[in-house]
Write a structure and sequence with these properties.
This protein is of the alpha+beta class. The protein folds into two domains: about 130 residues, no CATH class; about 160 residues, no CATH class. It is about 40% helix and about 25% strand. It has three helices and twelve strands. Strands 1-2-3-7-8 form a five-stranded antiparallel beta sheet, with no helix packed on it. Helix 1 packs antiparallel against helix 2 and helix 1 runs parallel beside helix 3. The longest helix is centred in the N-terminal third of the chain and has 47 residues. The radius of gyration is 29 Å and the shape is elongated. The protein starts with a helix and ends in an 11-residue tail after the last strand. The C terminus is likely disordered.
């Protein structure tokens, strides 16, 4: 009996939630669409983020008020029905078989099925749709790399106690390219690696950067292993990184990041044709393939 009462309560909450969603879904979708457009198409940071905060806040309180009103209406409805039930039970006119508070086992079962579906949808929504566009390089798309060679070049010093050696690294990818990159032999190549529990770890993707101590380089030299086409991808000294894409995607993608204010530090994505390595375009917008649900 106790278990069924709790299932009834859960089923009622699910129904209440669904009613609230029906009431605010259009507002919520409009908010998501407008905020997405602002983030992707306005580059001026001091305009973009205050606008996102103001519009997002307005939509939030609008949705909050609609949900609060929905809960209030349903609560009032239940209280009225409860009073009618008490009165009917007292004078013997209440029809128990047609009770407002009664739910069949089938109704409770389908409520639980819908709850399971909602949980799955929310999980995939938050783990895929809202993945930061600056983390798209973590998706491998089956691309792997093998280090062909590492060669230490010149030693560079910014001061007596701040020195590093430039390392030329050639990497071969399983989608048919060689990447000649330049970093340093230490952890001052902060843009091309991360600290982990095992120490300093270089990025697995081809990456070039000029380290804090002056070593490294800004460009990546790419060679197509099938036709020996070759090109130097220009960087800016901070970080030039190859972004993985599906093997059938016709372009190589490179992300160029520089230090500075919010706008200048946003990545610039450059596209190059895979067959002849000719330049196609560059933009601050994320290449469209990365917006898919994986």
């Amino acid at each position: 009996m106790w278990f069924r009462e709790n299932l009834y309560l859960l089923s009622s909450l699910i129904t209440l939630f669904e009613g609230g969603v029906k009431k605010v879904w259009f507002t919520a979708v409009s908010a998501l669409l407008i905020i997405t457009l602002i983030i992707n198409f306005i580059d001026i940071a001091w305009v973009k983020w205050p606008l996102v905060i103001m519009i997002g806040g307005g939509f939030f309180y609008g949705i909050y008020d609609d949900l609060a009103l929905h809960v209030q209406e349903k609560t009032t409805e239940i209280l009225i029905k409860r009073e009618e039930q008490k009165k009917g039970l007292a004078d013997g006119t209440y029809d128990v078989t047609n009770s407002f508070f009664k739910r069949s086992d089938l109704q409770i079962f389908w409520s639980l099925v819908r709850l399971f579906i909602y949980v799955i949808l929310i999980y995939f929504l938050f783990t895929n749709l809202f993945t930061s566009k600056n983390k798209i390089a973590q998706v491998n798309h089956g691309i792997t790399y093998e280090i062909v060679s590492k060669e230490k070049l010149d030693k560079v010093c910014r001061s007596k106690d701040r020195c590093s050696t430039t390392v030329k690294k050639i990497m071969s990818s399983n989608d048919g390219f060689l990447f000649e990159t330049y970093i340093t032999d230490g952890s001052d190549s902060v843009w091309c690696g991360i600290w982990s529990k095992d120490g300093w770890v270089e990025k697995t993707n081809p990456c070039s950067t000029i380290g804090d101590n002056g070593g490294g380089g800004e460009n990546i030299i790419v060679t197509n292993k099938r036709n020996n086409a070759k090109i130097t991808i220009p960087g800016n000294g901070t970080r030039l990184l190859r972004i993985n894409a599906p093997k059938e995607y016709p372009y190589l993608i490179f992300s160029s990041t520089r230090e500075g204010n919010s706008k200048s530090s946003q990545p610039i994505y450059a596209l190059y044709k895979k067959d002849d390595l000719s330049f196609v375009s560059e933009s601050r917008n994320v290449p469209i393939f990365s917006l898919r649900i994986f």
